[in-house]
Amino acid sequence: MNREKAVVFDIEKFAVHDGPGIRTVVFLKGCPLHCIWCHNPESQTFAPELLFDSAKCTLCGRCAAVCPQKCHAVGADGHELLRDRCVHCGRCTENCPADALKVAGREMSVAEVMREVLADRVFYENSGGGLTVSGGEPLSRPLFTRVLLEAAKRNRLDTAIETCGFAPWSAISPLLELVDLWLWDVKAAPEHHKELTGAESAPILENLRKLDAAGAPTVLRCPLVPGVNDTATDLAHIAAVANSLKHVRRIDLEPYHPLGEGKCRKLGREPGYRGDFAPPETVDKALAALKKLTPVPAAKG
Amino acid sequence: MNERIERLVRTVRSGDIFPECVKVEYDEFDRKLADPLRIAKRLSEYMEKQPCHFTDDNELVGLMRFDGSVESALFPRTGHSFFKETKEKFYCKPQDNLCTFEWQHSNADFGKIIRLGLEGFRNEIIESRQKFPNDVPRLCFLAGLEAMIRGIVRRAQQYALECRKRAASCADHARKAALLRMASNCTQVPEHPARTFEEAVQCLYFCFTFQPDSIGRPDQYLYPLYRAGIADGTLTREHAKELLQELYVMIHGWTRPSSSNGDKGAESHFVIGGYTIDHRCGWNELSELILDSLMETDLIRPQISLRWNKLTPRSVLYKVMDCERKDKNKRIAIVNDEPRIASLMNFNHVPWEVAYDYIMVGCNEPAFQGGISLGGNTVNIVRSLVNTLRDRRVEVLDCPDFESFYAVYEQELFRDLETILAYSNRFNMLRSRDCNVLTSLFMAGCIERAASVTHGGAARARWCANFMGSTNLIDSLCVIRQFVYEEKRCTMAKLLAALDADWKGHEELRNRILHKGKFFGNNDPLSNDTAHRFYASVGNFAAGRTDLFGHALNFGNLTGYNPHFAWFGSQTPATPDGRCAGAALLFGSGQSDGKDRDGVTSHLLAVAHMDPTGVMCGNTIMNLSVDEAIVRDDGSFEKLVMLIETYFKEGGLHVQLNHVSAEDLIAAKKDPDKYKSIRVRVSGFSATFVDLTESIQDNVIARTVNPV
Q1: Which tens digit of pLDDT belongs to each residue from B355-364?
Q2: What was the pLDDT predicted at B693?
Q3: Which of A94, A122, A261 sits opposite B646 (nearest CB)?
Q4: Rounded to whole angstroms, how far apart are CA atoms B321 and B327?
Q5: Could you give the 3-state DSSP secondary structure of residue B595?
Q6: Mean pLDDT of A242-268
Q7: What does the domain layout of chain B look like in residue ranges?
Q8: Coil, strand, or helix at residue B416?
Q9: Which residues of A touch B683 (CB under 8 A)?
Q10: Among B74, B378, B414, B640, which is least packed, fewest CB within 10 Å?
């Protein structure tokens, strides 16, 4: 168990929206999809990445002084970051007095992750909570995810996984006995799924069908991006998927928020989508529409 | 809330409801009397001359303040001349950057007055007199108490007479009946035991002015009469609620609106729930009614703490926290019986029969009904480390490991704790020169010992000093342990040089400390162990020691109404935790400047487990700021309740919640370094507020306006 490692970009404690009770969510880095609205762009690549907040930078030059790779060119005009040289040693982040530099992602073993997860065991026991593995895409690191979930089960923890479902069935089937709840993304109708996420929806839906046939309980998590995937066709698709499942518990509509835009800038990338918070009326309208199309309960996630 | 109570609330929120004090000329010849007799005589004369003031909306009577012309109520120390002098010399004036003199709380045993009536007290005085046949000072004191009873009873009779007089000329039948009932109540209480819930509340209302502090555990001592009234149909829940609300109006109004404390809640604080003497959960339908009736009234005082224990149903915790989240006046906190009672019994050797009945008073001071809180000194605990690094420098530089360093530090800690105790004893000696007969009557032990509460008469006393900067201190010890001894990232000489220079020229070291330091509140082995070690040292110091009256020692960490943490901080040089010279110290149990990076669960666990001895079961507080979105969404809120319940099950002592205000977030935006620990829910997920982009920050700020 100790040999298996993955890059983890966050461990969120007291998570209250990703499964029952009080949970710890472990976010693995790396995702096969590239949704244009992605709110965690730092989760897309598998390797650690440097986040640089130019607004915070005071041009003090300490990063340049300590960087062994000479990634930072700091002058009176500004701070140029040569990302391709960076080996994510963290020296610059440690020495940045303005907190303008951060490394997203650090390699962790299952044992290291479990140590953090188990620190909150008393909270899970008192609330019916546990561990949720998320990402990125946890199924992109199937062995690490499996070993992590096995460790959680050995420790009698409730488990959940949040996934986009884009993975070979061979990555999913070993987890059937290890996952108590599947938080499964339904991102868009098939006709524009590839355009918006970079992948076809067919294999995802086929995996979901098999999962349901195996009796796995699911919650469908559906990002709601105004003007992008909130059309009648998209909502009808969500309802149709929900209606096809025997073991679905709920639909969570997750209104768009622009968190990813700022992070994209810190990563030196352009966001694929720009927008404001999804207005409450859009969410209410979508929920009302879903109610007419499916008996599966839907709520704002 | 009915219209009568609404009018009373409006009136008390718009001005002073208490009548002007009528000046009384005392016969100076009485100066020849012994103090207790003179004081009782003058107080009786004073009370007799005051107007029997109440309005047509009142159904409870007794509004009266003392004017300071004679020693009267102990909590405000009205008329206590030695206290006044001590206050002028020492209050809010830090001594040696170590210790300040603070106020003290003390609480009448209202339950006993309701149960026995003053006639019961008179019997106790007669009994006590037999024990001191030739002790003139004590006999004088007991005679003073007896005279005080006569004066109080006479005052109640004046009210009864006034009520009857107004009834005689009252055309309104309902009001006339009420006035006659009020007259009857004043004839019965406080002289005789209360027979009904209404008489009991009238007794409480009337006697509050003799010791206007905590009303203790009203859901326990009022419950038998409440139950009996409901059972025999003489009392309705609605009428009981009305009586309680009228009582709250008076308690709120007792603090003058024009005083500097007029807007503060801790002037009166009581508890609901908690254990009963037979180890059951004391939460009952009256506890619920007390809470519900409080929630209906838009008042600042009284404030309430729920006494949680392992028998408290989750539904009760939910109910109290639900009220807390809706209470715009922020009057509700929660304390844990388990560690408190364990500390009282095991550390302070208080028997269960007393310990189970503790109360919370003031900001968050544990006390007893009929008991006094001594100490109340607020201290700079960081000074002990500053002294170690300055005065013991040669030894410190020679220390080969953290163990040897800590041994040197512990000597300085003990030296400061001794000095703090000496200061406290000196302050209390000054205060003890006053004589008090009014409040002493209602304090457990004063009749039995025939001694004023100020002279050590109180049997149920608590001593506590409050640490300012305990988290700075623990963090500083952690930094020394981690950076100098374990990871050897810098030498002690280098660290000392940085501190001497107030970090100037050593910014890199300070950054490394702030980024990599294993600070308290992250539930990691190093900081947890360092906290344990520090509190174990404090426990070792306190074990077996007492103050000058023989009371066991406890410590806490609240700052009260005064910014002691800032005063001490302004005089304290840079500290190893990265704090710069002059910066305010931290107060309370946890972090409040962003060093708790591992989230709320780690923070709560570290705090719940920090004290292995129970010595910190004094005036200890835990401020918890949570994003308003968590309290607004019922699903998340339910998990917040479970979070707090788990914290208590793990031994957490106290919690008061802050749902992050827009003001705090605006301040966080301007000064992100100071607010790194604020996590906010953006949209079904959490993020560190200061790391969000500006538009999201603005959005969150806009949302966090309290919608209540």
Answers
A1: 999 999 988 8
A2: 64
A3: A122
A4: 10
A5: coil
A6: 94
A7: 1-64+111-193, 375-621, 660-708
A8: helix
A9: 254-255, 257, 259, 277
A10: B414
Cα B254 to chain center, whole Å? 17
Of B79, B103, B62, B120, the closest CA to residue B437 belongs to B79
Q: Which residue is closest to A96 within chain B, CA to CA?
A: B511
Q: Rounded CA gap, B301 and B268, in Å?
A: 6
B580 touching A (Cβ < 8 Å): no
Interface check B544 vs A, CB under 8 A: no
Check whether B683 has a pLDDT greater than 50: no
d(CA B346, CA B613): 9
Q: SS3 sequence, B487-545? A: CCCCCHHHHHHHHHCCCCCCHHHHHHHHHHCCCCCCCCHHHHHHHHHHHHHHHHHHCCC
Q: Which residues contact B674 (CB under 8 A, 6 or more apart)?
A: B593, B594, B667, B668
| Cis upstream peptide for B190 (omega within 30°) | yes
Q: Are B218 and B290 a contacting pair, CB within 8 Å?
A: yes
Residues in chain A closer than 8 A to B693 (CB atoms): 258-259, 261-262, 265
pLDDT band at B8 (very low <50, low <70, confident <90, very high): very high
Instruction: Please give the distance of CA B555 from its chain centroid, rounded to a whole number.
Output: 13
Contacts of B696 in chain A (CB under 8 A): 257-259, 262
Mean pLDDT calculated for residue range B275-304: 96
Rounded to a whole number of angstroms, the distance from the CA of A257 to the nearest CA of chain B is 7
| Residue A94 pLDDT class (50, 70, 90 cuts) | confident
Instruction: Give the C-alpha separation, B306 to B359, whole Å.
Output: 10
What rounded mean pLDDT belongs to chain A? Answer: 95
- Of residues B122, B120, B8, B145, the one with CA closest to residue B63: B8
CA distance A186 to A200: 12
Residue numbers in B near A126 (CB within 8 A): 642, 645-646, 649
Which SS3 state, helix, strand or coil, does residue A110 take? Answer: helix
Q: Are B613 and B347 in contact (CB under 8 A)?
A: yes
Nearest residue of A to residue B635, measured between CA atoms: A16
Residue B472 tokens read as 């700075």
| B514 CA: distance to closest CA in chain A (Å) | 9
pLDDT in tens, B163-214: 999 999 999 999 999 999 999 999 999 999 999 999 999 999 999 999 999 9
Among B288, B274, B398, smallest CA distance to B338 is for B274
The answer to whether the Cα torsion of B171, B173, B174, B178 is positive or negative is positive
Domains delineated in chain A: 5-46+105-300 (3.20.20.70), 49-103 (3.30.70.20)
Q: Span A258-266, mean pLDDT? A: 90
Give me the residue from A13, A127, A129 closest to B602, CB to CB: A13
Tell me the pLDDT band of B115, cut-offs 50, 70 and 90.
very high
What would the mean pLDDT of B378-384 be, rounded to a whole number?
97
The mean per-residue pLDDT over the stretch B407-417 comes to: 98
Surface of B (18-57) touching A: CB under 8 A: none
Q: What is the mean pLDDT of chain B?
A: 92
pLDDT at residue B688, rounded to an integer: 67
Give the nearest partner residue to A94 out of B512, B601, B636, using CB atoms: B512
- The SS3 assignment for B279 reads coil
